[in-house]
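Reproducibility note. Readers wishing to regenerate the assembly model reported in the main text can use the exact inputs given here. Chain order matters: entities are listed in the order in which they were concatenated for prediction.
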Amino acid sequence: MASYPKDVIRDLIDGKLPWQTTKPIMSDFKDERRFEIYLEILQERVPWKERILLPVGEHLYIVEKGAARIVKCDCGHEFGPYTENWKLEALVYVRDDERSLDEIYPGARKCDPGWMELREYYCPGCKAQLEVEAVTPGYPVVFDFVPDLEGFYRDWLKKPL
Amino acid sequence: MEKAIQTTAEAAPERRGCGPEGRTLLAALRHDRELLEQTGHYHGISDLRLKAENYLHYESLHARLRSAVVNARETSKKISASPGVREVGESVVALYTPEGDSVVLSTGIMVHVHTLSRFIQWMIERDYESDPGIAHGDVFANNDPFVSDVHPPDLMNVTPIFHGRELIGWVGAVAHELEIGGVYGGANQTTTAERFGQGMIVSAEKVAANDVIRRDFFVRAEMNLRTPVYFVLDEKAMVSACIDVREKVLEAVEQYGLDYYKRAIREIIEEGRRAHLQRMKMLTVPGRYRSVAHAGHLFEGKVGASPLSRNCIVQVPLEMTIDRGGFMTIDYEGAGRKMWNPYNCPPAAMDGGFFVTLTQFIDFDGKVNDGCWFATRMICPPGSWCNPGDDMTATSSAWGSLMPGFGSLQRMISRSFLARGFREEVFLGQVNTPIIEGGGINQYGQRFGGQNLECSSEGSGARGIMDGIDCGYVGWNPESDMGNVEIWEMILPILYLGRRIWRDSPGAGKYRAGATYSTLLMIHKTPLYNIVSTIHSDKVFDNQGMCGGYPGPTAKFEYVSRDTDLAERIARREPLPHVEGDPRRPDISTRVGGDFRVVDGVFLERPLRSGDLFQFFYNTGGGYGDPIERDPEAVRRDLDNGIQSIEIAESVYRVAARFDAAAKRHAVDEQATRKLRAECREERGRRAVPTRQWMARQRERLLRHDLGREVKEMYNDVFGFSERWSREYREFWSLPDDFVFTV
Ligand SMILES: [Zn+2]
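Running the prediction on these inputs yields the following structure tokens for the assembly.
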């Protein structure tokens, strides 16, 4: 079973590892301690103290806050329980006309705003663009991921949650 | 639909058959599935005994079988005359158990590893063993989607492997045909709304005996196809691959012993099943994942479109659950009804899309076979476009719905990799693959039909630690090769003025999607070339970004210019168009005189002729991460390489760049970039609203029925079809229980 030093994993997840080193990691058997080291690296980076239970995006984490498990942005903004869709507590900007779509897709390459809109969800704290949905107008906000945290920790990681 | 062939032969299952232990193949198949059901293990194999006893001996047999199928495919490619197979590699070869489960497979269009399984099992269930009979040297061919296929261009062949009187396995091979005799030339027929008009359909027929393909089968091809040489030589290529593997398997049986072989092939599958579950636990996170994709289609008023086909949006919702055992279920609940257009998917197509995704994301090495199939489940609502239950439906462009759907699956699996820390495996790869096809009179003065299968290599979606693959990926054939320009010019009446990177094509993100390309064709030496486009999405993007990345620009359009002054310009040695140029004033409209048009959606137009220009754009996928977090140096590099424009660098990536004419390269102003990015965050704060506030306004809009016709028809279709999805929809927006849209 492969295993890599923390520095290597840090560079890997940051996209800074040279391809010559990245490719063998992709091709080889995976390293069993990855999740553990991944959490350590992420925990060291965030400016807050709550324990990270599971990363769910580039900026978002499910963290332990007292007895609650909430979604939190690395900037510190808190969205609420992970069992609820964080997008409902975010800011949204919708590109649903030719002009706003043209900023991203000039000329003929844009979608027809009558058929599809782009919803940009921002963090109310740092205004990072957390997700973009490309959906028909009227489509419900997509709830991307509800992890089975208990099952994951107890049955798969064999660790207390 | 009840037909004579549909009735499973119940005739004396106890009669002696050619299957294992003297069972009929049907009894063997049922016995095998009972063992799986009862023990949870493939074929009831609870211990990998052969592997434990002598690991090297066991692995050497696996390696030998695998090299047999890989080698047979490579050799057979040289028999084919079709660039689809020779250049692009649109074929696959696989070995099966007597019950039709795959043991080993070659590279290539792995989609078909499981469609071949279904084909073999279709014949077993209909007692082909009795009639038409199964003997050494027989070959069975099929391209009927509702026997088991994605669409008619994929021609499959299987041959049994007999050891004495016992059938000990099957070999199968598939090749994608460039012409299959549809309404117009080509293979993935856009204009047909039913089974009919998709082309020549071969429904599970015995086409060879004693290793010789029947002459009448070739006669049929020659009488029913515009360019039969592809079909005829592809057929020979596949049959030769099947025979090649069969002989190598029999040699292996001699060396390893029959009992060893029979046990080993099943251990190999059980090992594949276990490895899949272990990997799920190693790489993913249990839970519920959701995604959606849409595909749009324009038919109304288009030249030659079926009057049965309406403009429509296909809703492709997908839910993936991973349970605590690592067992994955994917569910297409919320898919709408089957359609009067060619974008339906028969069950085998869904199988194929699922299988090819698994082989790239979870089961990419070791024992890659049907083992993973037994550790997963897929739910496709009966009567929907993804499970029509009606073999009269058209599926010739099935990929146009499959790819958005399985792109969603890739995205959801990627989200689990991200959560788990395996960011290097995050890959938003799969995107739709628009195809240029058609027919008419070719440069040799002959009637022809064919596809330009260069679409087999497009931009991929982004990865979690780096950009996507530029012009080098499609989901359905991970080998991904576009073929040489000269080859397509040889078989089609065209000359390429350009096949180059399409600037600003990648879905934007911290890591962008792979750049794709556009092809600018000069129609050449033909009085009549009916070009049709197929397998794409009109008016909507059919893919998504992730973690803040944008989708790739996949709403279909084409540029066409007729009655051009190209010949005069060439004579005067003036510059010609090669790329798109400024998307608001494309080069094809400024660098050549002619009747220029932008065609919205599918290309169904009057035929083209020599001197006309046609420009086609291939797809790419979604970006990953917030674009304003992209490394400005990466943006600068893209500017130098013509992948991005200064305009998009500024409006999307918020990078201040200029072209330094003296240095002949772009330069980034870092301070101005920081300022632009800070302003972007402020701008976002100003223009955005809290989601719940926006939702309240949206709810009012829905209550006013203020949506476009096609959107409302899409929702109404699902309301009348999926109770679960409709309930969730109405609950989400707090709409009345019986809410439907007024169209
Ligand atoms: Zn934030």
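We highlight two features of this model. Chain A touches chain B through 76 residues (CB under 8 Å). Chain A has a mean pLDDT of 97.
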